[in-house]
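A further point concerns the way the authors explain their paired sequence and structure data. For illustration, here is how one protein appears when written out as sequence plus structure tokens:
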Amino acid sequence: MKLGLLALCSLVPAFAQSTSFARAAEFCSDPGVDAKPFVEERLAFWQKRLQLTEWNISVVMTPRSALKARTLGGIHWDKDKKLAGISVMDPADYHVACEQMLDDMEFTIVHELIHLELASLPKSEASRSTEEHAVNRIAEALIKLHREPAGRTGQLQ
């Protein structure tokens, strides 16, 4: 099986947008937050939004120790089979407010999906840092646009 490049979600300053997603309160009201339904919901939304519906994409909550240093997640893919697996840092390893954790998880999903979209482009170690920077900026912009549609700030669709 030919696996694509492991793309990593670099740690960036916590994505400062507050999650006003209507269900955030529901997820955050439980001290033992099960973020998996939230992550799967966000994956389905962003997969459709980014027109990646021909891909079979799964998400796995992953302990920080299993991720590369200075990352919140990663992705593996098989272009021929249109299969991808996204790793998102497990909630037990977050030490921030629940809303910030959910923001980071959504950012990770969007970030990794952008890497998937760029999978067909040539890659090199020399371009890795530049790609990570661009992917971070694109992910931030997409989420910001999603949360601030038509001049309404702080609201998710």
